[in-house]
User: Fold these one by one.
Assistant:
Number 1:
Amino acid sequence: MRRGGSALDQAEAAFKAVTSKPVEAAPAPKSQTPPAGKELVSLRLDRDVLEHFQEDGPGWQERINAALRVSAGLE
């Protein structure tokens, strides 16, 4: 008996090889580190501190965040 199978079997195998969708690799596991971004928190600030950051209008929350980053040595 021949190892390659019949001509029909070989033709079918060749046809399947070129017409089948390739198997997609499984997605890489997600990192265990938390995603970057903002987190909603409740924070009590002295009134004068809050007023200081709100004086320049919208964006006061980002300004507080920037000041905290500098104070924490992250910038």
Note: The radius of gyration is 31 Å.
Number 2:
Amino acid sequence: MERHEIETFLALAEELNFTRTAERLLVSPGRVSQTIKKLERRIGGPLFERSSRHVALTPVGRRLHAELLPAYRQVQQAVANASAAYRGLGGVLRAGFSALWCGDLIVRAAEVLQARHPQCTVEIHRMTFAAAFTGLRGDELDILVKELPVDGPDVIAGPVLFSERRSLVVPASHRLAARETVSLEDLALLPLITPVGASQDFLDAHYPRRTPGGRSVPQGPAAFGWEEMLSLVGAGKGGTPVGAMAADYHARPDIAYLSFDDAPPVDYAPMWLKGHESARLQTFVEILLELAPTR
């Protein structure tokens, strides 16, 4: 059987309609009919029962379809694997995240990537604030998904995957906890707990030293990881800004999450080291964009 005969037979077996099959294969219905007739002459009998209103596989046609389809898919996958190897899609992609909701997105994207390109695997790493960009520069990670901004001119930010409202985490015992929302001016009412190892650009974007009205924001202790920061908040040592989804992933009885009513959203994006782009990485970014939630 020639390739176009296989593809025509399989398409017609699925569509059971000559017009739809022709549209799918970008040929005329007459061409589909001629190809099937030629195939049937070679096999020695009909593969389809035809009438003006009905197209169905014959018993022989059903058996041919059942045996031919897996073999055809195997050939397609072999060709795709060979092509992907030359395009750099094989091998291991190391993906990092700091926020759990970014990790969930990476896990889903990894499943899609491996389903489409079985020769590619994804290693997933949760990183602290301090280790995230160090991992990129130290050749431990190929890609990182986290809050913008990036850390330095040697890191490239891809397209924003999603945005979310900004919240403030405060001790449950603090007077702000009784409110439904807070403003940026309220940052002056308690010490701000900050992450160790974050760049100054990141701190300026998420942990301001002054409110928009010019009031000084008290500086509280610093912590290496998110769980440590929440423990400090719960102990009454201060508050810290975060994306609103943290309330779904990190609920605790000793803290409260309050939405800002005047703060810009938190944007999340894929990031990688300049000059380290690859077909594997770009394919993964495209899948992240496919799966990213609209918020």
Note: The chain has ten helices and 14 strands.
Number 3:
Amino acid sequence: MAKKVLIADDEPSIVASLEFLMARSGYEVRIARDGEEALALVASFLPDLVLLDVMMPRRSGYEVCQRMRERPEWRDIKIVVLSAKGREAEVGKGLAAGADAYVIKPFSNRELVEKVGELLAA
């Protein structure tokens, strides 16, 4: 059974690229275009991993991450924060919110696929 990945990002070109990349890597993929939709899909789709943009409408990626970590049934879902904000303080904020990894945009597709594979194998 394929592992499930939720892509939560409001940038259409990034969503299309990530969706293609994750599907090609054998993952079952769903898309959320804002923070509220992301939380709704976490509840209904129960992904194994979430690729989570920081700056989204209706709830930030940080808020989504914190909400996910507050729910015991979602604590094992891996979270990879994707952000153009690469300052040390931002990375620290993402990890403090509960992210398993923080990837700075632009990123290498190969490195992202490797990171997702590592997290899902753990």
Note: The two ends are 17 Å apart (CA to CA).
Number 4:
Amino acid sequence: MLMFALFAPGGAFFSLWFYIILGMKLYSYQETNFWYRLVDSEKDLDGSVGQTNLALGDLYYFLFAPTLCYQRDFPFTPKISINKLLHRLLEMVVVIQIMVGIVQQWIEPIFQRSDNPFSGIDITLRVEHLVSLAVPTHFLWLLFFFLSHSCLNFAAELLRFGDRHFYGDWWNAPNLITFWKNWNIPFQKWSHRHLYSQLVDRKVSPSQAELLVFLISAALFEYLIALPLHICHLWIFLMMVLELLVAVFLGSYFHGNYGNGLVWLCLLLGPPLAVTTYFHDHYIL
């Protein structure tokens, strides 16, 4: 029952996810080529310098490449390793099976004990369900991250894409700000190039630009989950804003291992748990 409830909006979710990524890639493609034209015009006063990269093959490669930021010359590996491809493919199959098992054997029984959405149940029962869902949701989030790692590396190996820096060592992050900068490098690079830098160029202060970029990313995350499920409680957005407040007001008090512990606590009780509450309400309704 739960798997049907999860897969029912799956088409809408992946369609929305696909078109968001496509839109970000196409925006980066046209903006970067505009910057290239400006540089080429400065080098050649009569503007006769052509852009040899403007070809369908180059565009299609960028659309399938595991990156969101366009550039003229991507780094390439010498050849495709069949062993690495099979290894990544096996990882994806195994991880998906484990995720399905966690949903069916751990999360679904918790959902079945509920008769009403989270907003309509008693506060004590709500806390009980959230505490029960925290651990399986955390495992599911970690597995989803590993699945993303396998998919990105599979695509990179298949396309001989040389830049495999998809994330940093976010698990060792001493604070939430470091975690946000390291857990999704492609999105971080796109946001810095096409949002943060553009805002700063328009005389927005760096601190205000960082805040706006964070709020935009939080709203995008909320939109990506809420729209396919036809439910909007703003839980994900508010949870990310709460994490921002924690980072600002408590970050200076937690250092080293204590700061890393705070990061993991926010991962345990933060946006991944809010996502699960959305699926809970979708399952109930």
Note: The CA atoms of residues 2 and 108 lie 6 Å apart.
